[in-house]
């Protein structure tokens, strides 16, 4: 009964203050988040098991089973008597409007390895702010400007626990808002595994496929996902063999085929520095593809991420890339003359 006295906006404000990584589901008028009472055991930071059902005026947790009225919940979480809460709720004007309303699909937990933290999610990184390993990963992505890059994916993860991908950065490959593939990148010098590892038993898809938009009528194809963060309509195929003629997997090919009217431009690492990038560019040119050939003035940078870190920028524009893009014989001559 007393609950009726508390305005909804007051409850919502308290929910946003105390629940972990709260989110509002507009379609059902339900708020969800991490339960501050039980901390949801090992799933804290990943699952949302605490619910505030507005129409029932009830809050409950599917993990610890706590269930009661919002008034009781606030009282228990804050350690303040219900009387004091009622007094506070009545005396303050509450115009709280949640800012981070999201109506997004749940991440399918199976689409990522082990226990992962989304480094782009402020609530999750704040929760792990005392965890040195997570902090180290977070600093790594900040130093490399991956959290501000213009064409970054919707999430970027740190894997805390997995047989294969443990303590590495997980780069998700989205298609239709779902993570359909991932690669992990080495983070620690003590990690003896290869720099990049792919999800097992799954055919590779195109990285940043979901980010393709009519913003430009070009698609810029990179080898490594990270470089494609910095160019609008930049995608990546996750490595090519310098000997192979099949640059795409069949699945990647079918994805690329969905954009027949876009001009594709290949952007590999600096051909001045990387001999295999030069070889691959030559093969692509001979096959008739358009390729970016690194201009002399960028001789000192190894890839696009390197340019952006040193130049403190989050984007390399398409006019710049296109002004250094060549095709056919002209490209072959240019490549041989300049590198
Ligand atoms: Zn709970």
What's the helix and strand layout?
Layout: H1 8-18, E1 20-25, E2 30-34, E3 50-53, E4 58-61, E5 67-68, H2 70-78, H3 82-91, E6 115-118, H4 122-127, H5 132-143, E7 157-161, E8 169-175, E9 178-185, E10 196-198, E11 218-222, H6 225-228, E12 234-236, H7 250-256, E13 263-267, H8 275-286, E14 290-292, H9 304-311, H10 318-322, E15 325-327, H11 328-338
Parallel strand pairs: 11-12, 11-13, 13-14
Antiparallel strand pairs: 1-2, 2-3, 3-4, 4-5, 6-7, 7-8, 8-9, 9-10, 14-15
Helix pairs in contact: 1-2, 8-11
The chain binds zinc ion (ZN).
**Total number of strands:** 15
Topology order in helix (H) and strand (E) letters: HEEEEEHHEHHEEEEEHEHEHEHHEH
- Termini separation (Å)? 79 Å
Which overall shape is indicated by the principal axes computed on the Cα atoms?
elongated
- Structural class based on helices, strands and sheet pairing: alpha+beta
The neighbouring-strand order within the major sheet is: 1-2-3-4-5
Approximate strand percentage: 15-25%
Count of helical regions: 11
Helix content percent band: 25-40%
Q: Runs with pLDDT <50, length 5+?
A: none
Instruction: Give the biggest beta sheet.
Output: 5 strands, antiparallel
Gyration radius, rounded: 25 Å
Name the average pLDDT: 88
Instruction: Give the distinct bound molecules.
Output: zinc ion
Notes on the structure:
By secondary structure, this protein is of the alpha+beta class. The chain has helices at residues 8-18, 70-78, 82-91, 122-127, 132-143, 225-228, 250-256, 275-286, 304-311, 318-322, 328-338, and strands spanning 20-25, 30-34, 50-53, 58-61, 67-68, 115-118, 157-161, 169-175, 178-185, 196-198, 218-222, 234-236, 263-267, 290-292, 325-327. It has a five-stranded antiparallel sheet with strand order 1-2-3-4-5. Strand 8 (169-175) and strand 9 (178-185) form a beta hairpin. Helix 1 (8-18) runs parallel beside helix 2 and helix 8 (275-286) packs antiparallel against helix 11 (328-338). The radius of gyration is 25 Å and the shape is elongated. It starts with 7 loop residues before the first helix and ends with a helix. Residues 35, 37-38, 40, 61, 63-64, 66 line the site of zinc ion.
């Amino acid at each position: 009964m007393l609950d009726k006295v508390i305005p909804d906006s007051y409850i919502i404000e308290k929910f946003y203050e105390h629940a972990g990584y709260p989110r509002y589901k507009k379609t059902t008028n339900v708020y969800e988040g991490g339960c501050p009472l039980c901390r949801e055991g090992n799933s804290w930071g990943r699952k949302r098991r605490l619910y505030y059902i507005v129409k029932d005026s009830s809050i409950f947790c599917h993990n610890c089973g706590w269930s009661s009225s919002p008034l009781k919940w606030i009282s228990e979480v804050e350690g303040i008597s219900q009387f004091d809460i009622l007094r506070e709720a009545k005396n303050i004007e509450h115009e709280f409007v949640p800012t981070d309303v999201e109506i997004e699909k749940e991440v399918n937990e199976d689409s990522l390895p082990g226990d992962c933290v989304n480094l782009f999610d402020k609530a999750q990184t704040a929760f792990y702010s005392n965890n040195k390993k997570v902090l180290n990963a977070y600093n790594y992505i900040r130093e490399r400007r991956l959290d501000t890059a213009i064409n970054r994916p919707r999430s970027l993860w740190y894997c805390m626990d997995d047989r294969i991908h443990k303590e590495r950065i997980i780069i998700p490959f989205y298609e239709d808002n779902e993570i359909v593939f991932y690669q992990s990148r080495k983070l620690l010098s003590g990690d003896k595994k290869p720099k990049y590892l792919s999800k097992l038993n799954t055919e590779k898809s195109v990285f940043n496929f979901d980010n393709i938009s009519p913003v430009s009528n070009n698609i810029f194809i990179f080898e490594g996902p990270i470089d494609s963060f910095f160019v609008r309509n930049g995608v990546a195929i996750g490595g090519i063999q310098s000997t192979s003629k099949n640059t795409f997997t069949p699945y990647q090919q079918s994805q690329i085929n969905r954009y027949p009217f876009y001009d594709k431009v290949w952007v590999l690492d600096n051909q001045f520095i990387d001999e295999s990038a030069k070889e691959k560019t030559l093969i692509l040119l001979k096959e008739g593809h358009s390729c970016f050939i690194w201009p002399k003035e960028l001789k000192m940078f190894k890839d696009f991420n390197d340019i952006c870190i040193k130049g403190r920028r989050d984007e390399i524009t398409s006019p710049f890339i296109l002004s250094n893009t060549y095709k056919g014989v002209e490209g072959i001559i240019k490549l041989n003359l300049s590198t």
